[in-house]
Design a protein that fits this description.
Blueprint lengths: L3 E5 L2 E4 H20 L7 H26 L1 H6 L14 H18 L4 H26 L16 E2 L2 E2 L7 H20 L10 H16 L10 E3 L2 E2 H19 L5
Antiparallel strand pairs: 1-2, 3-4, 5-6
Amino acid sequence: MFPVLFHVGSFPVHAWGLMLLVGFLAAVWRATRVAPRYDFEPGLVWDCSLLGLFGGVIGGRIAFILQELPHYSQKPLEIFMIWTGGMTSYGGIIGGLAVGIWAAKKRGMNVGDAADIAAVSMPIGYFFGRLGCFFNGCCYGTHCDAPWAITFKDEAGLLHERVHPTQLYSMLASVLMFGVLALLEKRPRRRYRGELLPLFAALYGLYRFIVEFWRAQESSKSIISGLSSGQWMSLVAIVVGLGLYFFLPRRK
């Protein structure tokens, strides 16, 4: 599609990298807007978010490299070319959450409240990240004859078939996840601090499990009992998310 949106002099501005930045800024802006509801200073939210971004980029990149190890073993210098794309969302979410929540704890913030802010804000960043994938022409789906099918360009030219625009499916799922979590956040009282993060994990796992049927990437290839690695990870996210959602209220 449009992997390079424009040039600043001779410097190319890649769509995926720019959308990652836009998504991060939009998600953090939203988080700072609701920070007073949780008795957080907006500056603390920015600090933790910046560290979370670093953890997300590292985690997502490492997971992608492991997934595409044969390619990167032949071209090791491309490991550091993250501006051209190449991350897994699961690795990014896990890495970002781990570092961001660790940073919140170090700053004396309530971890449950920090997790809830992150849970509602992350779908915003994810929306723009998948928009970047759409512009970049990556993370597309399998063959599709529906009217909304799209033909993407790659380095070799046009792909010679119409495929599912799974990036757009992911963007729609992001809107739905944000809507559900934002409505729950507005309730006068939460069941317990941190309840929205397990729900985000379950909703994300459910969406990914479904979309993986149409994705054409390595994570969508069948490995065990007809399910792909991405779908097995999605099932883990659903089970863990729902398990924590119902188990944690029993703990003080």
